[in-house]
Amino acid sequence: xxxxxxxxxxxxxxxxxxxxxxxxxxxxxxxxxxxxxxxxxxxxxxxxxxxxxxxxxxxxxxxxxxxxxxxxxxxxxxxxxxxxxxxxxxxxxxxxxxxxxxxxxxxxxxxxxxxxxxxxxxxxxxxxxxxxxxxxxxxxxxxxxxxxxxxxxxxxxxxxxxxxxxxxxxxxxxxxxxxxxxxxxxxxxxxxxxxxxxxxxxxxxxxxxxxxxxxxxxxxxxxxxxxxxxxxxxxxxxxxxxxxxxxxxxxxxxxxxxxxxxxxxxxxxxxxxxxxxxxxxxxxxxxxxxxxxxxx
Amino acid sequence: xxxxxxxxxxxxxxxxxxxxxxxxxxxxxxxxxxxxxxxxxxxxxxxxxxxxxxxxxxxxxxxxxxxxxxxxxxxxxxxxxxxxxxxxxxxxxxxxxxxxxxxxxxxxxxxxxxxxxxxxxxxxxxxxxxxxxxxxxxxxxxxxxxxxxxxxxxxxxxxxxxxxxxxxxxxxxxxxxxxxxxxxxxxxxxxxxxxxxxxxxxxxxxxxxxxxxxxxxxxxxxxxxxxxxxxxxxxxxxxxxxxxxxxxxxxxxxxxxxxxxxxxxxxxxxxxxxxxxxxxxxxxxxxxxxxxxxxxxxxxxxxxxxxxxxxxxxxxxxxxxxxxxxxxxxxxxxxxxxxxxxxxxxxxxxxxxxxxx
Lengths: 296, 357
Fold this sequence. Notes:
The structure holds two protein chains of two kinds.
Chain A: H1 8-38, E1 42-43, E2 49-50, H2 56-61, H3 64-97, H4 103-111, H5 118-129, H6 134-141, H7 155-180, H8 183-191, H9 196-224, H10 228-233, H11 241-250, H12 255-290
Helix pairs in contact in A: 1-12, 3-7, 3-9, 7-9, 8-9, 9-12, 11-12
Chain B: E1 6-17, E2 20-31, E3 35-39, H1 46-54, E4 61-66, E5 69-70, E6 81-84, H2 96-106, H3 111-124, H4 140-152, E7 158-162, H5 170-187, E8 190-195, H6 198-204, E9 207-212, E10 215-220, H7 222-227, H8 232-237, E11 242-249, E12 252-255, E13 260-262, E14 274-279, E15 285-286, E16 294-305, E17 309-315, E18 323-328, H9 329-334, E19 342-347, E20 353-356
Parallel strand pairs in B: 3-8, 3-9, 6-7, 7-8
Antiparallel strand pairs in B: 1-2, 1-4, 4-5, 9-10, 11-12, 11-14, 12-13, 14-20, 15-19, 16-17, 16-19, 17-18
Helix pairs in contact in B: 2-3, 2-4
């Protein structure tokens, strides 16, 4: 038998990693494992947990009623993602095309809303969309006299809230590859006979896809599990998975089913994240070369 | 030979960025199948001029006539002109073949024609073994050839090259200069090259334009520019020149120390005006055997042996800066000199050029 001696550098890096690992284990791995375990038990008659093994909870997740909520959440999150990516990419493109010294200023303003509380930002939308809110008042000021439009407590309001809250992520994620893109690449494409649109489609877009993917995944993952925005701006009429999970734990007192729903949600998020990681890995080589400095 | 046809006529072209005038009323003609060099120090406006020819800058004034048609306001994708970028600007997400095909796909040519033309240009530029590689897998010289192939495959009326050899090391550069010349003959396309390297333009160009502060100083063959520079700046910028400051006389220049330099005085200079007489280092002889009109004595300060010839720095009473003299190694071997020696210098009046100070 041979003895393995741990080298001092390895020992040191293990020690440096220990607090982070302990933190992750205590606050992430253990709670997740507990929730996962919970999903395999039965709900007690008066709300408690009956410790007998069952797969019923997972079966219930695929019940048309709940599967429908999953699909609906995915649709709302997907719509919010699409809108956020279009607006965010356009904004990032505009910022990267601005004079160099102004770019940090624009980025600062893009991220500014982040410095206020999420709830306050969401309440602000209620003030805007309310039947007698700012938008209605603005319409009145322009001479509109009819019924105030019902904007709050609609799916549109939920999507608007999600887009607004997560837009800065998309702007930052798209700005990074756009600002590193060698401007001569677009010029070369034009020089070779491509229109501005073709240049965008065949050169700029493919080289900035990693940023779009990162931003999109961020918005989608945060949106599909969100429960504050649908609760406040959807008025409880538009349930998303987040609200469903919330209800199971806090209202219906069905912890095992809530746990199964939460696990299904985590599985969806992991799938999305893994797909993105795979794509990002493949695109990493391109992005490195896309920087102007790479070819002198 | 018949008079060569003018391909591109640049007519009083001007461009300013805010208060900075980058190109200031330049007019020049570029001929069919010519290798033309735009030469000047950085900031002289040569890159702005090139970008106007490519269509990336719009002139404030003037015309760019290609085959007689004004293209000054035609967008870059609608000009029969291609630019080879200094950074090469190869598309990093495309293979060498895809990079080269791109321009022909934009012309919506049939697939088989694209394939055969791309194959042909890859063969010409010796890139066939690298066709499936991505730009990141290529060396500097290979990238340069891809950039060239990508532009040439379009068969432009005019190929613009922005400091094409700038990113290469010195040895590769020499080889590529000849390679570019060979390719230009082979494809029969007019080349306009931008460079700050006067040696490069002397070697490669059929004709060259020397620019300074957005203005055209001289446009002629390398030989004519070297032998008959238009002014003192050109004389100094192209090759090496020895200058003797002084006052204009009837038959030359009177140096500050009282010595007379004989040479042809330009009609524009009146006697008594401040001027410089100049002579190329290779036109000066050491220990002149025959009685030459222009002579001086000097002290050798330094010698640099350069294989074929020997360069000497010689302190003379004629000018504050030491004279640079170049003699062949053979001539130097006949009568060796070393640092500290006093030597006789002489040169012909025919080799003297006189410029306004």
